[in-house]
DNA sequence: CGCGGATATCAGCATGGGTTGATGTCACCA
DNA sequence: TGGTGACATCAACCCATGCTGATATCCGCG
Protein backbone atom coordinates (compact mmCIF):
# COMPACT_ATOMS: atom_id res chain seq x y z
CA UNK A 1 0.00 0.00 0.00
CA UNK A 2 1.64 3.17 -1.19
CA UNK A 3 -0.20 6.01 0.45
CA UNK A 4 -0.16 9.15 -1.63
CA UNK A 5 -2.31 12.24 -1.99
CA UNK A 6 -4.70 10.17 -4.07
CA UNK A 7 -4.84 7.16 -1.81
CA UNK A 8 -8.41 6.03 -1.17
CA UNK A 9 -7.62 5.12 2.42
CA UNK A 10 -6.29 8.55 3.27
CA UNK A 11 -9.13 10.23 1.39
CA UNK A 12 -11.80 8.20 3.16
CA UNK A 13 -10.22 8.82 6.56
CA UNK A 14 -10.05 12.55 5.93
CA UNK A 15 -13.58 12.66 4.54
CA UNK A 16 -14.91 10.90 7.64
CA UNK A 17 -12.88 12.66 10.31
CA UNK A 18 -11.15 15.67 8.76
CA UNK A 19 -13.47 18.08 10.53
CA UNK A 20 -15.08 17.80 13.97
CA UNK A 21 -18.57 18.58 12.70
CA UNK A 22 -18.25 16.05 9.95
CA UNK A 23 -17.07 13.41 12.39
CA UNK A 24 -20.11 14.24 14.50
CA UNK A 25 -22.39 13.80 11.50
CA UNK A 26 -20.75 10.44 10.79
CA UNK A 27 -21.38 9.32 14.36
CA UNK A 28 -25.04 10.33 14.10
CA UNK A 29 -25.45 8.48 10.80
CA UNK A 30 -23.96 5.39 12.42
CA UNK A 31 -26.94 5.25 14.76
CA UNK A 32 -29.67 5.67 12.16
CA UNK A 33 -30.40 7.05 8.74
CA UNK A 34 -31.20 10.71 9.01
CA UNK A 35 -32.34 13.51 6.79
CA UNK A 36 -30.57 16.84 6.51
CA UNK A 37 -33.12 18.53 8.79
CA UNK A 38 -32.37 16.07 11.62
CA UNK A 39 -28.63 16.59 11.26
CA UNK A 40 -29.10 20.34 11.37
CA UNK A 41 -31.21 19.96 14.51
CA UNK A 42 -28.86 17.53 16.25
CA UNK A 43 -25.65 19.37 15.52
CA UNK A 44 -26.93 22.93 15.80
CA UNK A 45 -24.90 23.88 12.74
CA UNK A 46 -26.24 26.05 9.92
CA UNK A 47 -27.96 24.37 7.04
CA UNK A 48 -25.35 25.25 4.37
CA UNK A 49 -22.60 23.97 6.63
CA UNK A 50 -24.37 20.65 7.13
CA UNK A 51 -25.08 20.40 3.40
CA UNK A 52 -21.44 21.12 2.64
CA UNK A 53 -20.23 18.32 4.86
CA UNK A 54 -22.80 15.89 3.50
CA UNK A 55 -21.50 16.73 0.06
CA UNK A 56 -17.96 15.85 1.09
CA UNK A 57 -19.19 12.49 2.41
CA UNK A 58 -21.32 11.91 -0.67
CA UNK A 59 -18.50 12.67 -3.11
CA UNK A 60 -16.18 10.40 -1.15
CA UNK A 61 -18.67 7.59 -1.59
CA UNK A 62 -19.21 7.26 2.13
CA UNK A 63 -22.95 7.94 2.20
CA UNK A 64 -25.93 7.09 0.06
CA UNK A 65 -28.81 9.51 -0.40
CA UNK A 66 -32.49 8.68 -0.56
CA UNK A 67 -34.83 11.50 -1.50
CA UNK A 68 -38.26 11.25 0.16
CA UNK A 69 -40.36 14.11 -1.15
CA UNK A 70 -38.86 17.31 0.10
CA UNK A 71 -36.60 15.42 2.46
CA UNK A 72 -33.23 13.83 1.75
CA UNK A 73 -32.17 10.93 3.90
CA UNK A 74 -28.54 9.92 4.27
CA UNK A 75 -27.17 6.46 5.01
CA UNK A 76 -23.60 5.82 6.10
CA UNK A 77 -22.21 3.16 3.80
CA UNK A 78 -21.11 0.45 6.21
CA UNK A 79 -19.25 -1.37 3.48
CA UNK A 80 -17.07 1.65 2.76
CA UNK A 81 -16.22 2.10 6.44
CA UNK A 82 -15.44 -1.62 6.70
CA UNK A 83 -13.02 -1.36 3.78
CA UNK A 84 -11.22 1.44 5.53
CA UNK A 85 -11.08 -0.62 8.73
CA UNK A 86 -9.58 -3.54 6.78
CA UNK A 87 -6.98 -1.33 5.15
CA UNK A 88 -5.95 0.03 8.52
CA UNK A 89 -5.77 -3.49 9.88
CA UNK A 90 -3.35 -4.29 7.07
CA UNK A 91 -1.32 -1.18 7.87
CA UNK A 92 -1.09 -2.27 11.52
CA UNK A 93 0.07 -5.73 10.45
CA UNK A 94 2.78 -4.32 8.25
CA UNK A 95 3.91 -1.94 10.95
CA UNK A 96 4.13 -4.87 13.35
CA UNK A 97 6.31 -6.81 10.93
CA UNK A 98 8.45 -3.76 10.20
CA UNK A 99 9.81 -3.66 13.73
CA UNK A 100 13.49 -4.41 14.06
CA UNK A 101 14.54 -3.26 10.61
CA UNK A 102 17.05 -0.48 10.94
CA UNK A 103 18.32 1.20 7.83
CA UNK A 104 21.83 2.63 8.37
CA UNK A 105 22.34 6.39 8.14
CA UNK B 1 -19.11 5.96 20.33
CA UNK B 2 -19.79 9.67 20.39
CA UNK B 3 -17.33 11.21 18.00
CA UNK B 4 -16.48 14.78 18.93
CA UNK B 5 -13.59 17.12 18.36
CA UNK B 6 -11.75 15.35 21.15
CA UNK B 7 -12.46 11.83 20.02
CA UNK B 8 -9.32 9.67 19.93
CA UNK B 9 -10.49 7.88 16.80
CA UNK B 10 -10.95 11.07 14.84
CA UNK B 11 -7.69 12.51 16.19
CA UNK B 12 -5.70 9.40 15.29
CA UNK B 13 -7.21 9.26 11.81
CA UNK B 14 -6.43 12.92 11.19
CA UNK B 15 -2.93 12.59 12.61
CA UNK B 16 -2.21 9.65 10.30
CA UNK B 17 -3.83 10.91 7.11
CA UNK B 18 -4.70 14.58 7.53
CA UNK B 19 -1.94 15.66 5.18
CA UNK B 20 -0.62 13.89 2.08
CA UNK B 21 3.01 14.16 3.17
CA UNK B 22 2.20 12.78 6.59
CA UNK B 23 0.31 9.89 5.07
CA UNK B 24 3.35 9.22 2.94
CA UNK B 25 5.57 9.23 6.01
CA UNK B 26 3.20 6.79 7.70
CA UNK B 27 3.38 4.45 4.72
CA UNK B 28 7.19 4.56 4.79
CA UNK B 29 7.26 3.83 8.53
CA UNK B 30 4.99 0.85 7.92
CA UNK B 31 7.76 -0.76 5.89
CA UNK B 32 10.63 -0.21 8.31
CA UNK B 33 11.80 1.98 11.13
CA UNK B 34 13.47 5.05 9.72
CA UNK B 35 15.33 8.04 10.95
CA UNK B 36 14.47 11.61 10.07
CA UNK B 37 17.23 11.79 7.46
CA UNK B 38 15.78 8.80 5.57
CA UNK B 39 12.32 10.31 5.57
CA UNK B 40 13.70 13.60 4.28
CA UNK B 41 15.49 11.70 1.53
CA UNK B 42 12.56 9.49 0.57
CA UNK B 43 9.95 12.22 0.54
CA UNK B 44 12.05 15.07 -0.84
CA UNK B 45 10.44 17.42 1.69
CA UNK B 46 12.39 20.00 3.72
CA UNK B 47 13.75 18.95 7.07
CA UNK B 48 11.55 21.27 9.20
CA UNK B 49 8.47 20.03 7.36
CA UNK B 50 9.35 16.41 8.03
CA UNK B 51 10.14 17.23 11.66
CA UNK B 52 6.81 19.00 12.01
CA UNK B 53 4.86 16.02 10.75
CA UNK B 54 6.84 13.62 12.91
CA UNK B 55 5.93 15.81 15.84
CA UNK B 56 2.23 15.53 15.02
CA UNK B 57 2.55 11.73 14.89
CA UNK B 58 4.60 11.68 18.07
CA UNK B 59 2.17 13.85 20.03
CA UNK B 60 -0.72 11.71 18.82
CA UNK B 61 1.03 8.68 20.26
CA UNK B 62 1.30 7.04 16.86
CA UNK B 63 5.07 6.73 16.70
CA UNK B 64 7.85 5.91 19.14
CA UNK B 65 11.25 7.56 18.91
CA UNK B 66 14.63 5.99 19.49
CA UNK B 67 17.63 8.30 19.56
CA UNK B 68 20.82 6.72 18.20
CA UNK B 69 23.60 9.29 18.58
CA UNK B 70 22.82 12.17 16.32
CA UNK B 71 20.09 10.19 14.60
CA UNK B 72 16.49 9.77 15.65
CA UNK B 73 14.67 6.66 14.50
CA UNK B 74 10.89 6.48 14.34
CA UNK B 75 8.70 3.43 14.73
CA UNK B 76 5.04 3.36 13.74
CA UNK B 77 3.12 2.02 16.72
CA UNK B 78 1.29 -0.96 15.24
CA UNK B 79 -0.85 -1.30 18.37
CA UNK B 80 -2.19 2.26 17.98
CA UNK B 81 -3.05 1.69 14.33
CA UNK B 82 -4.73 -1.60 15.22
CA UNK B 83 -6.88 0.17 17.81
CA UNK B 84 -8.02 2.64 15.18
CA UNK B 85 -8.79 -0.23 12.81
CA UNK B 86 -10.88 -1.90 15.52
CA UNK B 87 -12.80 1.28 16.27
CA UNK B 88 -13.59 1.72 12.59
CA UNK B 89 -14.70 -1.89 12.41
CA UNK B 90 -17.12 -1.10 15.22
CA UNK B 91 -18.36 1.97 13.38
CA UNK B 92 -18.99 -0.13 10.28
CA UNK B 93 -20.94 -2.67 12.37
CA UNK B 94 -23.10 0.01 13.88
CA UNK B 95 -23.72 1.59 10.51
CA UNK B 96 -24.76 -1.82 9.18
CA UNK B 97 -27.27 -2.26 11.99
CA UNK B 98 -28.55 1.31 11.62
CA UNK B 99 -29.99 0.57 8.19
CA UNK B 100 -33.75 0.68 7.97
CA UNK B 101 -34.33 3.09 10.83
CA UNK B 102 -36.08 6.15 9.51
CA UNK B 103 -36.76 8.98 11.86
CA UNK B 104 -39.84 10.97 10.74
CA UNK B 105 -39.40 14.60 9.69
C1' DC C 1 -51.20 27.98 -9.61
C1' DG C 2 -49.00 30.32 -5.84
C1' DC C 3 -46.84 29.84 -1.61
C1' DG C 4 -44.02 27.82 1.83
C1' DG C 5 -40.68 24.41 3.21
C1' DA C 6 -36.39 21.61 2.42
C1' DT C 7 -31.98 21.76 0.86
C1' DA C 8 -28.22 22.15 -2.54
C1' DT C 9 -25.22 25.63 -4.14
C1' DC C 10 -22.86 30.17 -4.53
C1' DA C 11 -19.71 33.83 -3.11
C1' DG C 12 -17.08 36.04 0.31
C1' DC C 13 -14.42 35.87 4.51
C1' DA C 14 -11.58 34.03 8.36
C1' DT C 15 -8.71 30.70 10.27
C1' DG C 16 -5.84 26.70 10.98
C1' DG C 17 -2.27 24.05 9.39
C1' DG C 18 1.45 23.13 6.03
C1' DT C 19 5.81 25.06 4.20
C1' DT C 20 9.80 27.92 4.29
C1' DG C 21 14.20 29.91 5.93
C1' DA C 22 16.53 30.85 10.16
C1' DT C 23 18.06 29.53 14.63
C1' DG C 24 19.25 26.77 18.68
C1' DT C 25 20.79 22.54 20.83
C1' DC C 26 22.87 18.20 21.09
C1' DA C 27 26.07 14.53 19.46
C1' DC C 28 30.20 13.23 17.12
C1' DC C 29 34.95 13.71 15.54
C1' DA C 30 39.70 15.45 14.78
C1' DT D 1 38.17 22.54 22.13
C1' DG D 2 36.26 23.91 17.84
C1' DG D 3 33.84 22.62 13.87
C1' DT D 4 30.36 19.93 11.60
C1' DG D 5 26.18 17.31 11.16
C1' DA D 6 21.41 15.97 12.68
C1' DC D 7 17.20 17.66 13.79
C1' DA D 8 13.84 20.04 16.84
C1' DT D 9 11.83 24.45 17.10
C1' DC D 10 10.58 29.32 15.90
C1' DA D 11 8.36 32.92 13.25
C1' DA D 12 6.31 34.46 9.11
C1' DC D 13 3.64 33.55 5.10
C1' DC D 14 0.15 31.42 2.22
C1' DC D 15 -3.64 28.67 0.88
C1' DA D 16 -7.24 25.23 1.42
C1' DT D 17 -11.19 24.51 3.90
C1' DG D 18 -14.93 25.52 7.04
C1' DC D 19 -18.59 28.92 8.04
C1' DT D 20 -21.85 32.50 6.91
C1' DG D 21 -25.75 34.81 4.58
C1' DA D 22 -27.95 34.84 0.20
C1' DT D 23 -29.92 32.55 -3.67
C1' DA D 24 -31.81 28.95 -6.68
C1' DT D 25 -34.41 24.82 -7.32
C1' DC D 26 -37.45 21.23 -6.29
C1' DC D 27 -41.38 19.26 -3.77
C1' DG D 28 -45.81 19.31 -1.33
C1' DC D 29 -50.13 21.44 -0.28
C1' DG D 30 -54.34 24.31 -0.36
From TrEMBL, chains A, B:
Signal peptide: none annotated. It holds the Pfam family HTH_5. InterPro entries: ArsR-like_HTH, HTH_ArsR_DNA-bd_dom, HTH_MetalResp_TranReg, WH-like_DNA-bd_sf, WH_DNA-bd_sf. Residues 2-96 form the HTH arsR-type domain. Keywords: DNA-binding, Transcription, Transcription regulation. SUPFAM superfamilies: Winged helix' DNA-binding domain. The keyword DNA-binding applies. The keyword Transcription regulation applies. GO terms for molecular function: DNA binding; DNA-binding transcription factor activity. This is ArsR family transcriptional regulator.
Amino acid sequence: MLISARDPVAEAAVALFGDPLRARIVALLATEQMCTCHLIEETGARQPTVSHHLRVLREAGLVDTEPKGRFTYYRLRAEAVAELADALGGLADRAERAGGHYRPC
